[in-house]
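Our preliminary data section would be incomplete without showing what the modeling component actually yields. Below, a chain of 318 amino acids is followed by its predicted structure, encoded as tokens that our downstream tools consume directly.
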Amino acid sequence: MKHPPYLRSSDAVTLLFLVIVTVIHLLFADRIPHWSSAVVTNLLLGTAIVLSARSVHRRGAQSNLAVRLFRDWYLVPSILIIYTQTSAAAFPLHGRDFDTVLIAADRWLFGTDPTHWAGQFAHPVLTELLQLAYSSYYLFFIVLFYELYRREDHTWFRSGAMLVVYGFYLSYIGYMLVPAVGPRFTLHDFTMTDAELPGLFLTEYLRAFINAGGGAPAGTADPLLTVHRDAFPSGHTQLTLVAMYIAVAARTRIRWWLVAGGTLLIISTIYLRYHYVIDVLAGMLFFLFTIWSGRRIDAWWNRKQITSAGEQINSDVS
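Predicted structure:
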């Protein structure tokens, strides 16, 4: 099988997942609202990925700057676009949430609800610190890949991008298989979060921003009708661990900052009531599978691409 020489492994998994999500929306169009807009978006995005990759491969540095930037950084908006589609489609696919199962798992493991237990440590200073850590999630990847992108050798930029997007897509599969909203809605009064977990300066604004991005903006009459189902697994845990792994393995200058910040971020998922502990444990398992399988897929894709390129050269010479 010949691999398109202009596609990276991260492109391949993105295109594959776009196909999977599109097929799901088509098969369950009667259950998923706005399915047609999702299908059109995915077709346009997939086309843009292929065309930009071909253009940069053929023209190199002579290709349009905007095209080159899109080709290298389209993964950022793609992750967000696909996240919105999968987490919003999770509940319609099943017609129910699985929070009761996750709550039972936590109680079986710990004999209590960990988010209630963590409440004894609540303090505005700690809340502020952990809310800042939680809110830095996407910044982790931007800072990490900016450093990798500035290197003359882009090997880690490309292989790291593969691990990150692949990890995100695996977590989205979890969202669709086990839709859940998390303990802030089920074990606590969501409307009382600011009063029960006050911060100092930025907590309230950051929390409101995250709520809005997750489908529960301020003023929503019943947030359970609109909030995204993205509790299981904890993608924040899984992908933060992936970012920490890349930062250390690639020996980046910011690796220990990411390790320290990432550790606080993982703790914040429970303290701030976004996740059950079983979500976090699942996120750790997803992380291990992401690294184990993702590196093999990336190496396989690169080997096949080199083989295909060699066959093409031999064909041209003969």
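The chain has a mean pLDDT of 92. The two ends are 20 Å apart (CA to CA). Preliminary results of this kind motivate Aim 1 of the renewal.
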